[in-house]
Amino acid sequence: xxxxxxxxxxxxxxxxxxxxxxxxxxxxxxxxxxxxxxxxxxxxxxxxxxxxxxxxxxxxxxxxxxxxxxxxxxxxxxxxxxxxxxxxxxxxxxxxxxxxxxxxxxxxxxxxxxxxxxxxxxxxxxxxxxxxxxxxxxxxxxxxxxxxxxxxxxxxxxxxxxxxxxxxxxxxxxxxxxxxxxxxxxxxxxxxxxxxxxxxxxxxxxxxxxxxxxxxxxxxxxxxxxxxxxxxxxxxxxxxxxxxxxxxxxxxxxxxxxxxxxxxxxxxxxxxxxxxxxxxxxxxxxxxxxxxxxxxxxxxxxxxxxxxxxxxxxxxxxxxxxxxxxxxxxxxxxxxxxxxxxxxxxxxxxxxxxxxxxxxxxxxxxxxxxxxxxxxxxxxxxxxxxxxxxxxxxxxxxxxxxxxxxxxxxxxxxxxxxxxxxxxxxxxxxxxxxxxxxxxxxxxxxxxxxxxxxxxxxxxxxxxxxxxxxxxxxxxxxxxxxxxxxxxxxxxxxxxxxxxxxxxxxxxxxxxxxxxxxxxxxxxxxxxxxxxxxxxx
Length: 537
Hints:
The protein is α/β, with parallel strands linked by helices. It has two domains: 21-348, ANL, N-terminal domain (Rossmann fold), CATH 3.40.50; 429-528, GMP Synthetase, Chain A, domain 3 (2-Layer Sandwich). Helix content is 26%, strand content 27%. The chain contains 14 helices and 27 strands. Helix 3 (59-75) packs across helix 4 and helix 9 crosses helix 10. The protein is globular and about 65 Å long.
C-alpha cells in the first residue's frame, strides 16, 4: 500500500469534501430493492412506453412479467453467477429482461446492436455467456442458434406471482459495461449490486423518490442507462422509455411534457445541440444533468439564462465508478471558459487529487482519484489493466482503494473540483471514452496503410469529432476503403467523422506529428462536420 504525503492544508480540504457518508442499503441486492418497491408501490406506474408514450406497466405487473421470464431462464439452465447477454432495443422487453436476469442471480452483459458481428462474437466468447436475450424487434438482427438465444415478447410471457428465491448478494456482479481498450476491443467493467444502490439512494445530485419521473434515453450499453433505469425502479419512481432509436427534438419535447419527466441526463454533445436547436424541449424538466466530456461555455451560459439557476447540474464520473462521481449545481457560469467545476463528490463517494506521492493543496494540479462503494472490482478478462488503474493508498491515516482516472484537475479553496484534461491519448467523444492510439493501430492494420494518425477536433456547435490522417502504400488508397475497414472492427462511436488521405504526415522539428499542421490542411472544413455517429439516444 502506497502512502500519500499530506500537508495540513491538503488534508483539510479533502476531508471537507469527502464527508459524504450517508446510510444506504449496502447489503441489499437490486432484486430485493426492486421487490421492496413492488410491495410499497405495486399499483403505481413503473414504466411508460409506446410510440405515443401512453402505455404503462405498474410495479406489480412488471414484477410478474420478470418473474415469468426468470422461470424461463431457470429452465434454460441460467444459474447464480452466470453471464446473460442482452441484445435489445429500448422497450418493455429490455426492462423485463434486466429484471429477470437479476432475479436469477446472474449478471447482464448489454450488447450494442450497432457493433460489428465479429466483435459481438468475441465478447460472447470472452465472457462465456450462458444465453443471449433478444428483444422481439431485434431477433432478426442478430441470428444465433436456437439453443443460444431466447426472444423476449411480453405479450407471450406467462406472468408469475411468486418471486424467485434470494440469489446474488450485494457484492455480486449485477452487470458489465464496456470502455475502450488498448487493443481496440472494449474492456469489461463489472459493477456490483451495492454500487448501483450507492448511486440512487440519498442522491444529492437529483431528487430520486416515488415522485420522480426519469427519462430513459441512453442505450443500455452506455453507463448512463444505469442511472436512468435503476434511479427510477429502485426508488418507486417512473421510468419513461424514449420511443425511438434516434433522438428527434420534437419527439423529445412531446414525451417530456406528456409524461411529466422530472429528471433527465443528456451527454454534452446532445446538450449543446439541444440548446442551439430546441431549448424549449426541457423547459418543464426540474433537473437537467449533463456531462461526459468538456463543456461548452457558450451553451452553458445560454442554458442557464433560459432554465435559471439550480436546474442544471454538471456531472462527472468514469464507468469504473458507476456512472456519476461528482456533481455541480450550476448557479452561474464563470467568466473564464474552462473553469466550470465538475463539483464535489456525490453521496458515499470520495475524491482525491494527487501528484506523484503527494496529496494536492487547492490550486495544485494532480490526477483525480475516486474511492468508495461505487468502484468496480476490476476489469474482467484484463487483470493487468486493473493493476494499473486500481490502487491502494494510505491517505491521512485512512486506507483507501482508489480508481486512478487518468484525468487531471485541481481543487478550489471551496473544495469544488476543476477538470483540466487527461494524462494519455484517451478522449471522450459524444460521451464515449476512446483511446486514439488503439484506433490508429486498427487503421494501420489495413494492408494498404503505411501510417495513420488519429486526433480529435472541434466541429459544429463545439462538438468533438474524430479525425484520421492516413498515408497509403503507394497511390490508390481511398477513404471508403479505410472507413469500411474500420467499421467492420469497432463500434460506431470509434469511427472517424473524417478520414483524409495524405502523401505524408506533417512533423515537428522534434520528429513528432504536427497535429496543428494536419488539422490546418483538412480538405473539408471541420466546422461542417457533425458530432460523431453514435451519440447516445
